Amino acid sequence: MDIYLPIANLSVNALVIILLGGAVGMLSGMFGVGGGFLTTPLLIFYGIPPTVAAASASTQVTGASVSGVFAHMKRGGVDFQMGAVLVVGGMFGTAAGAAIFEILEALGQIDTVINILYVVMLGSIGGLMAKESLGSVLAVRAGKPRPAAKRRHHPLVASLPMRWRFYRSGLYISPLAPLILGFVTGIMTMLLGVGGGFIMVPAMLYLLGMGAQVVVGTSLFQILFVTMASTMMHSLTTKAVDIVLAVFLLIGSVTGAQIGARLAQRMRPDYLRLLLAAIVLLVALRMALGLGWRPDEIYTVQAL
């Protein structure tokens, strides 16, 4: 069944879009990430213009984050004070990202920049994840479990002035640290259509020193509001949000997340992280090859 995407200005198979959303949702349920960092590249591979893919993916991430936030709220897994600071930073980052997006679009370089950023970002994160998870797997197989890392914020964070107490997270740090983190995530959300959870969660753990019990819920709380702001900003400025595409992606992701959550209960965490690292590296490799391959048609003409 083919459907017409009015903003992308092309026809696609609805079942393929639903299956793509289901695959990303399954990964979200298995690994605890929003999945936006894979949605945009997969849409680009399918032929969706990068600008539309990035703008529409943020809409899907918004919908997928709602249920996660409520689930963590019920068990007290959200630090609302920390989340509010992250959201404020994310709002400013979204505005900055919108300005950068418009400048790159005016220069005709937005598609190339999106692809390059994904290659660098996914390649570096995938490499770090692979190194850590592979080390854990080898240590367990050798009968020498790796000791748990001590929770402590980064020295740079400790040096920042004007400290606040974040009681739920058990921290006494400057609000400037989460404010800057939220700002960077807001820019990424606007440019790449990602929620930023796959960077936000490690940063909150290893840079801010937050407790693991509140990291995921607080990250989803920030992602929910920032992706909402990003979607509205895209709708008002770039006008690249394709709601038809977002709806079909969301249908698939909701179902896939339930399946992924069940599969995750049957697999060991170390192997789950290693599998996610492999998937991220494969996507980065495919995007890198796409930047170097000569396309079948060098020039394309699209009516706006």
TrEMBL record:
Key word Coiled coil present: no
* TM annotation in the entry: 12-38, 44-71, 83-104, 116-142, 171-199, 205-228, 240-259, 271-289
Q: Where in the cell is it found?
A: Cell membrane; Membrane
Q: Which InterPro entries match?
A: TM_pro_TauE-like (IPR002781), TSUP/Inactive_protease-like (IPR051598)
Q: Where primarily located? A: membrane
Q: Which PANTHER family match?
A: MEMBRANE TRANSPORTER PROTEIN MJ0441-RELATED (PTHR43701), MEMBRANE TRANSPORTER PROTEIN YTNM-RELATED (PTHR43701:SF12)
Q: What is this protein called?
A: Probable membrane transporter protein
